[in-house]
Specification:
single chain; 119 residues; alpha/beta; 4 strands; DUF5615 domain-containing protein; DUF5615
Length: 119
């Protein structure tokens, strides 16, 4: 989970039985996004973020992993969008876990899946 999201998101996903970590749990707090992505790809994690940089890195690198969940909602408050995000992730789980990976964009009214690599 990217540092631009509240640590409460980690607790939320852990309460659902998922393993969840913040970027600061796996390395330096100022680690570049490319390093975070490499770690996630190697260790089979999905990145949850509000930062478009991860999509840019995926597009430029033509990588097929890691999958990324990008929150583009009007609020990032867990109380407001937590259930919406969880439902979108559950629906996209086969794509998120697939060998090709994906980017799941969660918006207020819809969720979109783009298979990796991005072109």
């Amino acid at each position: 989970m990217d540092l631009n999201l509240s640590p409460r998101w980690v607790e939320f996903f852990q309460s659902l039985g998922l393993e969840a970590l913040r970027c600061s749990d796996i390395g330096a707090i100022n680690a570049p996004d490319s390093e975070v992505m490499a770690w996630a790809a190697t260790n089979g994690y999905v990145i949850l973020t509000h930062d478009q940089d991860f999509n840019t890195i995926l597009a430029l690198s033509q990588r097929a992993k890691p999958s990324v969940v990008l929150l583009r909602t009007s609020s990032l408050r867990l109380e407001t969008v937590g259930e919406r995000v969880w439902q979108a992730i559950k629906a996209a789980l086969p794509d998120l876990e697939a060998e090709a990976g994906c980017v799941l964009v969660v918006e207020d009214e819809r969720a979109r899946v783009r298979t990796l690599p991005l072109t």
